[in-house]
Design a protein that fits this description.
Length: 295
């Protein structure tokens, strides 16, 4: 399996506070990956480390097997759209594309023109006079015209309306289908991620809590509902991720390593939103009296 982005115990510190710590993950080629976490979890820091804008204080980050800092061969294969979609506001889209062509040897101006034509964005209007959604589309077209092997997107749709957000994601998926680019997309909007992403990275408290193929992760997690004093957990439970209790009932989200068959517990499939919120939450996952995670 080819790995596009790999981190090993990666850490970045600002003063005494760690913005990212002990971050280890591997992103396979060809995936559209969701990078999820609350504000301050380290998402932007991870992306800035991956494009060489920051240097780590611990561990290592590799892109295409190499360190990205000042490596033109690596950086020429990476596209990055930052959270505030920074563009020269007095430039038109055409002027932005002209600059892109002068700075990137494989810049595909025809692709950039085609992307904007498909969604009706004028190329002769100053970028600063476009809507937020249109500016995000210009930034995406600029990044994709670079023909990158890896595209990093830091909350690119956070400030735009739902219709513009959907158009942006449709454009993204069209470009991915056309080019085969690997994508790492940071977002808080779980419904968007569920529609577009097939790989998941969950960051919480500056650390990676979960990483892997979305289908595989959903298949190995279940929600269990049983009596508050329902006795031992079923065989096949490897980890209690989150637990919620009422006076009479316990609801658990668990990670499994085998089918769950126990009449004392009802097992249900989980959604991507269930999974993400469980790993981001601070709910009680400690065993109650009578619980035992089977060996």
């Amino acid at each position: 399996m080819d790995i596009v982005l790999e981190t090993d115990q990666l850490g970045k510190r600002y003063g005494r506070a760690w913005a990212l710590r002990d971050c280890s993950l591997r992103l396979p080629v060809g995936r559209v990956a969701a990078l999820v976490g609350p504000n301050g979890a380290g998402k932007s820091t991870l992306l800035h480390l991956a494009v060489g804008l920051l240097r780590p204080d611990a561990g290592a980050v590799r892109v295409f097997g190499r360190t990205p800092y000042n490596d033109i061969a690596v950086l020429s294969e990476v596209g990055f759209v930052a959270q505030d979609t920074p563009l020269y506001r007095d430039f038109t889209a055409d002027e932005m594309f002209t600059m892109g062509a002068k700075l990137n040897r494989r810049f595909d101006t025809a692709l950039a023109h085609r992307r904007l034509a498909q969604i009706g964005i004028p190329r002769d209007k100053p970028v600063g006079k476009l809507s937020g959604g249109q500016r995000a589309q210009v930034a995406l077209a600029l990044a994709m015209a670079k023909r990158p092997q890896l595209l990093l997107l830091d909350e690119p749709v956070a400030s735009i309306d739902p219709l513009a957000r959907r158009e942006f994601l449709q454009a993204l998926m069209g470009v991915v289908a056309e080019t085969g680019t690997t994508v790492l997309l940071s977002s808080h909007i779980l419904a968007d991620l569920e529609r577009t992403c097939d790989y998941l990275v969950v960051l919480h408290a500056s650390q990676v809590k979960l990483v892997g193929d979305v289908s595989a992760l959903l298949a190995e997690h279940r929600q269990l509902v049983g009596s508050r004093d329902g006795g031992p957990l079923p065989a096949g439970v490897a980890q209690v991720v989150r637990a919620e209790h009422t006076d009479r009932q316990s609801t658990l989200l668990v990670r499994t390593n085998a089918p769950l068959r126990d009449p004392a517990w009802k097992a249900y499939d989980v959604t991507l939103e269930d999974l993400i919120l469980a790993y981001l939450g601070d709910g009680d996952s400690r065993p109650r009296a009578g619980w035992e995670v089977p060996a």
